[in-house]
Amino acid sequence: MKWKAIIVPALVLASFSSCKKDSSNNPATTNKLKMYIEDATNTPVDAIDSFSLTYDGQNRVTSLYSTSIKTVYTYNSNNTFDVDLYINGVLNVHELVYVNSSSLADSTFQYDNTADTTTEGYVYSGGLLAQLTSYNFSAVTGAQINTQDNYTFDNNGNVIKDIQSDGSGNVITITTYTYTGGILDYYIGPVYFPQDKNLPATQIQTDGSGNLISSVAYTYVFDSSNRVIKETDAENNGQSVVKTFIYY
């Protein structure tokens, strides 16, 4: 199963999800995260986890760690970086990310402790991620498409629709998003993945036939510097996740 390397359990599963890229490839110092706390007690996960972040001299995230989970980012000199996920000190997932000439993720190669191997290919249009294809890989069959996501954007560069299909072109899910006017200007992981410009307001996911799978409403609390210090993700099933952000 493809591990998405940034956001954490609800807490280990989140995302190499989009991370905003700015002209310097570094987060603004005033928005540099020191700690990220996720309270998922109102979900089946029933856990609270606190993650500290470390950085290198270029302000790139080098690790995200709690008492039991640690993600380590190693930046190489050949336009690649490694991502390693440790759970209770044991390596569970290793991923190698290739970066293109625009300093954006181009492709990935990943394997885990169950010998599951996957790879991804990123296709951009006008600097925006137009398509993401995930492949299952084996030495016998080579790369076979597992899923393919095609994205639609608004005029601000925010994803407003994600259509995910399987290797045969059958639509699995359709996810639509709306946004607030707030700016999404903090990072939880590497900056080599495109990130929406604005804070999301809602997310609605249906299956390929249009049947509702889930919907999420997002609300925020800001500090005096207009930085997000708390985010609440409330699902239509009554469950919610509360995220707290602490800055340097």
Structure characteristics:
single chain; 248 residues; mainly beta; Porin; 16-stranded antiparallel β-barrel; 16 strands; 0% helix; disordered N terminus
Short note summarizing the structure:
The chain is 0% helix and 59% strand. With 248 residues, the protein is mainly beta.
Structural write-up:
The chain is 0% helix and 59% strand. It is mainly β. It has a single domain, classed as Porin. It has a 16-stranded antiparallel β-barrel with strand order 1-2-3-4-5-6-7-8-9-10-11-12-13-14-15-16. It is globular and about 55 Å long. The two termini are 35 Å apart.
Number of strands: 16
Q: Main β-sheet, in a few words?
A: 16 strands, antiparallel, barrel
Our measurement of the CA-to-CA distance between the termini, rounded to an integer number of angstroms, reads: 35 Å
Oligomer: single chain
Secondary structure elements and their pairing?
Blueprint (H helix, E strand, L loop, with lengths): L32 E10 L5 E8 L5 E5 L3 E7 L4 E8 L2 E10 L5 E8 L4 E9 L2 E11 L3 E12 L5 E8 L4 E13 L14 E10 L4 E11 L5 E8 L4 E8 L1
Antiparallel strand pairs: 1-2, 1-16, 2-3, 3-4, 4-5, 5-6, 6-7, 7-8, 8-9, 9-10, 10-11, 11-12, 12-13, 13-14, 14-15, 15-16
